[in-house]
Amino acid sequence: MSQKKDVSRIKLDNIDEQIIELISDNGRLPNTEIAEQLHISESTARRRINRLINEDIIKIVTVRNPDRFSKFTTTIIGVSCERKRIETIEQYLTNQKETRYVGYSTGKWDIMIEAFFLDNEHLLEFLLKLGELEGVNDVESSIILRVAKFTYEWEVGRLLK
Q1: Rounded CA gap, 22 and 34, in Å?
Q2: I need a labelling partner for 59 at 20 to 30 A (CA). Which of 25, 29, 49, 112 fits?
Q3: Residue 1: which pLDDT band, with cuts at 50, 70 and 90?
Q4: Which residue ranges form the domains of the chain, and what is each CATH number?
Q5: In which order are the strands placed within the sheet that holds 111-117?
Q6: What is the pLDDT of residues 28-62, one digit of tens each?
Q7: CA gap 74, 67 in Å, rounded
Q8: Under 8 Å CB-to-CB from 80, ≥6 apart: which residues?
Q9: pLDDT tens digits, 69-100
């Protein structure tokens, strides 16, 4: 069984929201600059950022820009599976180095995946193994031929502005 995360809604105040927005634009922004822009002390900025990280509200990570790598294939994969096996299949997929995104979905597919592959042979091997898993009923893949938009924006609040 996969471990379920606590998805209770968290209320953030205006300062927390502004810190998150600043860090979203530049994860390496020094605490002193954050403090200066928000008119708070550096220690308050540092303490709030540490709290946001420690409470698993934000993560500061490095993301490679896929446009800078010429040798890979991005693929969207839909998986239809038996309900009683969905968590086992989910765990298998989340443990694969190729998968970047694994999520439950509505519609034709029970699970949607985004994955990177070195070439078509690598993709074929992945699909064959996936199709052989007990409980997998159907698999469909779509290769992304060209990316028209790729953003690092994960902050839903920004979509509403």
Answers
A1: 7
A2: 112
A3: very low
A4: 14-54 (1.10.10.10), 66-144 (3.30.70.920)
A5: 99-104, 111-117, 73-81, 136-144
A6: 999 999 999 999 999 999 999 999 999 988 888 77
A7: 11
A8: 108, 109, 110, 136, 137, 138, 139
A9: 656 788 999 999 999 999 999 999 999 999 99
Name 158's Cβ contacts closer than 8 Å, sequence gap at least 6: 21, 24
* Residue-level pLDDT at 134: 96
Closest of 87, 95, 21, 88 to residue 58, by C-alpha: 21
User: Is the pLDDT assigned to residue 152 strictly greater than 90?
Assistant: no
- Residues 6 or more apart in contact with residue 40 via CB below 8 angstroms: 15
Side chain identity at 41, as an amino acid letter?
Answer: S
How far apart are alpha carbons 48 and 3 in whole angstroms?
27
Amino acid at 48: R
CA distance 101 to 76: 9
Cα 21 to the center of its chain, rounded Å: 18
Contacts (Cβ under 8 Å, ≥6 apart) of 20: 12, 52, 57, 58, 155
Residue 3 tokens, joined: 């471990």
Would you say residue 120 has pLDDT above 50?
A: yes
